[in-house]
Amino acid sequence: MRLAHLGPAGTFSEEAALLYAPNAQLVAYPTITAAARSVLTGECDEAATPIENSLQGAVTETLDLLIHEVGFSIKAEINLSVAHNLMARPGVTLADIRKVYSHPQALGQCKGWLAANLPDAEVAAALSTAGSVKQADDDPLPAAAIAPFRAAALYGADILARGIQDDDSNVTRFVVLAKDDAPPSGNDKTSFCFSFDIDKPGLLYKVMGFFSDAGLNLTKVESRPTRMGLGRYFFLVDLEGHRADTSVVTVLEKLRAEASELKVFGSYRRFSS
After folding, report:
1. Is residue 1's pLDDT more than 80?
2. Residue 186, exposed/middle/buried by CB under 10 A (0-12, 13-18, 19+)?
3. Is 257 in contact with 183 (CB distance < 8 Å)?
């Protein structure tokens, strides 16, 4: 199996991909979108992409792909504990650092540590945590990167500080995108989105009552703009159960009758470590 992930080697996405399928042929892509679209083109069979972080919230690039692209489903989820490390090319010390590179999510997850320890350093966004190590190495200024531990060995960097995330309960949830989702296992989740063409009092309250009445537990609810004007949103929901379960089928049919659009992203086994 060819499994796509955000690259280069040494990213948390690669780590999640290895956790999911240690024997797969891993293929690195420069962006989340490129990794996901490799499933649509047939370059890869599946793609592991981040979808939310316990500190920073949604990874909107993945959510928008699920909402607006057609052709793949969520087949699995992986929860990965995240530990961030500050690293730099050999010879650079903590006192030298003038610039810090990393993926925006990682920078956000370490902003407290950076404010306390490198208050005058400029922060710069990178496409990936592992890729930020090379950007720091190429910078003429004394620069550092925030990246996974493995990236230091891969790219010849020295680790200056370990575990600099602001919260040790930092977990990133990844989803595996494939052309088909997973069969029922008895311990499943289903993800979907819906939107309304009309705006009237109590409409969202009404459809949320469908899930309560059916005894279905929602594990996540959030919103994203529809791209059709201010005040227009998709509501994204994760619930416990499989789309083939009778109770889930019934509720989704009721929801479809009220919503202007309903898109089921897929059903998949709930992650267990």
Report:
1. yes
2. exposed
3. no
Specify the DSSP element, H or E, that contains 122.
strand 122-125
Q: Which domains does the chain have, with CATH numbers?
A: 2-82+170-178 (3.40.190.10), 85-161 (3.40.190.10), 188-269 (3.30.70.260)
Element (H, E) at 27: strand 25-29
In the chain, beta strands by DSSP E: 2-6, 25-29, 46-53, 57-58, 73-81, 85-88, 99-102, 122-125, 143-147, 158-161, 171-178, 188-195, 218-225, 233-240, 261-269
Per-residue pLDDT tens digits for 75-94 = 999 999 989 999 999 999 99
Q: For 90-110, what is each residue's pLDDT tens digit?
A: 999 999 999 999 999 899 999
Q: Is the dihedral of CA 57, 61, 62, 64 positive or negative?
A: positive
* Distance between CA atoms of residues 68 and 72, nearest Å: 11
- Residues serving a catalytic function are 172, 174
pLDDT digits (tens, 9 = 90+) for 26-45: 999 999 999 999 999 999 99
pTM for this prediction: 0.85
Q: Pairing state of beta strands 158-161 and 85-88?
A: antiparallel
